[in-house]
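Our example pasted here:


***
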Amino acid sequence: MGCSLWPAELVGQYRDRGYWTGERLDAVAARFARTVPDRIALVDETERIGYGELERRISALASGFAAQGIRPGERVLLQLPNRVSFIVSAMALMRAGAVPVYLLPAHRISELAAIAVQAAPVAYIGPAVHAGFDYRELAGALSQGIPGGLQLIIDGTPGEGQVALEAVARNGAALAQQTVPVDTTALAFLQLSGGTTGTPKLIPRSHDDYLYSVRRSVEICGFDDETVLLLVLPAAHNFPMSSPGFLGALLAGGKVVLAGNGSPDLAFPLIEREQVTCVPLVPPLALAWTRAARTSTPDLSSLETVQVGGAKFLPGAAVELQEVLGVQLQQVFGMAEGLVCYTRADDDAVTVAQTQGRPMSEADEVLIVDDAGQPVAPGDPGHLLTRGAYTIRGYYKADEHNKTAFTADGHYRTGDIARQLPGGHLVVEGRSKDQINRGGEKISAEEVEDHLLAHPRVHDAALVAVPDPFLGEISCAVIVPDGVAPSRAEIVTFVRGRGVAAHKVPDRVHIVPDFPLTGVGKNSRAELRRALAAQLNPTA
């Protein structure tokens, strides 16, 4: 069933080179279910299950979904938090031949309704209540707005007209359990793009391309059966799912610990109790962990590697994290659309702190081009384009958008400004719109942010452009303070004291309690710009 997402000639090439193997994502843990069924695979706040039990639950739930009338190829919205049921449900849907559409717990009716228009789902799976929010009401409202409605499957006590996920699994366990054949080059699941504006685009992934990304990540990151991975980021994100993520940990025979959030108060005891060896974080969480460890005495002795990705981690913060937590930092730069870069264990300290790693596969093609699409001089910054054995060739049902998001020869326009060092490592300078043009002087937001973050009373910072009638744009340092907020005079004196050019010193300082976030948890400069512009130019 299905239709390949890839040109036929590439399918042949990737198979011949051994990148694609025809294996299924829902079978990543099957080998260990046969050989070491009692080894713990998944841990969450309420249960611990072994590999054998994981496989039994996947098979039972897959049969249950089929009995509910969910057919191969049909899309199902999956909105579960970090718990065992999320991983079981995702794999069970794929085993039944259905297509999970990964949503985040933070999504609400406006996002869900827009995504549903694109995905045309037949069912929704969500929690009853999570973090004080009743998802049963959300599910009901979503279903009412869709012609014909949706099957509503609830992890917990269901509402009226809804069915319990546990009941679906129980029903499936009593049936003959069969794995539905799938075309491993066809659509396996849909992820959401990490854009900061508009409705997220749907990213189509196949078993072949995604599993290659996971396998290669496992090799580079050294995951094995002693790996204990802590997930504090939402498991539906690409980073904690596949880089190497929970899929990689299960493929290697390790243990996955699922946590509800990344608070040090929750995460640090879990690291000690479960003897966690690796955790993926985004920069704001990495900063929070560094601050918390500096003022407490957690036992993090088992923790070997902290991966930081999702946004650029600035050099000063990278050095401090390693010193305070006593871990090896691995920078991870990539995108749900494909390309993934890692710093390696044998990289020197400067490379780890100041680059975002190098592409993980020999099949990754990287181009750095200018505004006209021409290659820049080696080492110069430019627009990052990429294609390869696990980088998509187009968004799902988005033909018009794909004309600008991809080149005619299949390179994905990432939207990142980067430069490539002689050894292949990338240094991400920002997004294509993250430069501030102050009267003709170009300012890199990330460069100034690194200086701002060095201030002892700055927890996090973003440098954004705001309109100015004389210079066109001026810079505003938007700061989340650590304790008493610094004044503008203090910030100016501090940044000037670090030896930067005068035009890079922030023109304004704006204090906020926290940053707005995009749908996938990244710092959203686009939202900050809009908010500041509205405040400074209310009649514009």
In short: DSSP finds 18 helices and 27 strands in the chain.
